[in-house]
User: Which sequence fits this backbone?
């Protein structure tokens, strides 16, 4: 049965209602659907539904663009009514020159010496303002949150000078167990989609989590976010020992990306299948392996521990604690130890560590890829990235 043509009209009608929370939820959902379909099409070009999917994406583009234009038009009409000598030249977006409007913001970020220890000699790659906005904001997710907050405030002040406004409704959705805006979108002279965690978006279908409400939902959200960022951010690397023992590899290399993604998904599936195992040691081993895969998704230099990324990874690692407790309750001896601090103090607890010459503090651990663990008399060494002295 084909949908009625009026269905899109109902969507448009709801989206046009100002100050409506329901309209906001609908826009979030449509932006999330749009992003998911766009990503799926990249790997499903021979799928029999690809043509219909492309047509649906065009309809979504028209729908979302139409409501954005109406919102901007209303704001411009209000501005014109207050200024007697305004003309259409004041309202219409000027023809852009070759230079990006956000270029100066990017240059200011790269010139900040305090940021350089977290981003090294980073260079922006974007050729459009919308992409540059996202690249800037993703970069700030890697630095200490206090510093990131100050720079986000700066970026919003600067874009306002360009006749650009933040839009907390124009967002791409990352599936998670809570709602959290990571950074807003933009409307006005620059249109860009922001990013947020959402408990309304479906987990990555490759994880095969059919319903929400299970105890592994949080980990499914973390892994789904990792998989999403791999597609969004070309700066990501991996240091997963089972895939590459001797170094850090860029996920821009397709073979490295496919191997790491397969390992991450496989380790999540092993956690699923061992969660109810009668032997809690088996479940703990699976959780340790998944934790290693999550923490082996890294930037160079590694993220600060108190950045958004660092806090998300720490939050994921804390889920190991109740699993260790269940092992102890079953009569086993078990302990885990995240490895941080001076490398000279922890190298006896680790194995196959990797040395970096950028980021962090010389002589200290920059990232704990795998925790040290001991189950009864069996020792499972940890693994770290450390800054050379």
Assistant:
């Amino acid at each position: 049965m084909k949908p009625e043509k009026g269905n899109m009209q109902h969507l448009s009608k709801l989206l046009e209602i100002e100050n409506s929370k329901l309209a906001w939820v609908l826009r979030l959902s449509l932006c999330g659907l749009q992003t998911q379909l766009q990503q799926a099409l990249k790997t499903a070009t021979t799928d029999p539904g690809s043509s219909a999917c492309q047509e649906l994406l065009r309809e979504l583009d028209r729908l979302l663009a139409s409501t954005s234009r109406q919102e901007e038009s209303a704001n411009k009409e209000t501005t014109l009514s207050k200024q007697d000598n305004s003309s259409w030249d004041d309202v219409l977006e000027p023809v852009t020159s070759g230079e990006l409007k956000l270029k100066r913001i990017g240059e200011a970020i790269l010139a900040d010496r305090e940021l350089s220890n977290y981003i090294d000699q980073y260079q922006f790659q974007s050729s459009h303002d919308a992409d540059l906005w996202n690249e800037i904001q993703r970069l700030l997710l890697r630095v200490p949150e206090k510093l990131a907050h100050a720079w986000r405030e700066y970026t919003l002040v600067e874009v306002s000078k360009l006749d650009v406004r933040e839009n907390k409704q124009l967002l791409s959705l990352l599936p998670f167990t809570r709602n959290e805006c990571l950074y807003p979108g933009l409307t006005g002279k620059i249109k860009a989609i922001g990013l947020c965690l959402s408990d309304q978006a479906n987990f990555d279908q490759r994880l095969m989590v059919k319903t929400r409400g299970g105890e592994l939902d949080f980990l499914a959200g973390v892994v789904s976010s990792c998989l999403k960022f791999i597609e969004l951010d070309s700066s990501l690397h991996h240091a997963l020992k089972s895939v590459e023992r001797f170094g850090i590899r860029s996920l821009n290399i397709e073979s490295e990306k496919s191997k790491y993604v397969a390992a991450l998904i496989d380790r999540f599936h092993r956690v699923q299948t061992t969660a109810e195992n009668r032997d809690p040691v088996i479940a703990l081993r699976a959780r340790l392996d998944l934790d290693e895969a999550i923490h082996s998704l890294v930037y160079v230099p590694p993220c600060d521990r108190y950045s958004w990324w660092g806090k998300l990874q720490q939050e994921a690692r804390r889920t190991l604690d109740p699993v260790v407790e269940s092992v102890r309750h079953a009569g086993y001896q078990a302990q885990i130890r995240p490895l941080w601090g001076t490398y000279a103090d922890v190298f006896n607890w680790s194995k196959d560590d990797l040395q970096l010459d950028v980021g962090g503090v010389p002589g200290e651990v920059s990232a704990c890829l795998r925790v040290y663990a001991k189950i009864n008399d069996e020792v499972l060494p940890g693994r770290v990235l450390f800054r050379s002295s």
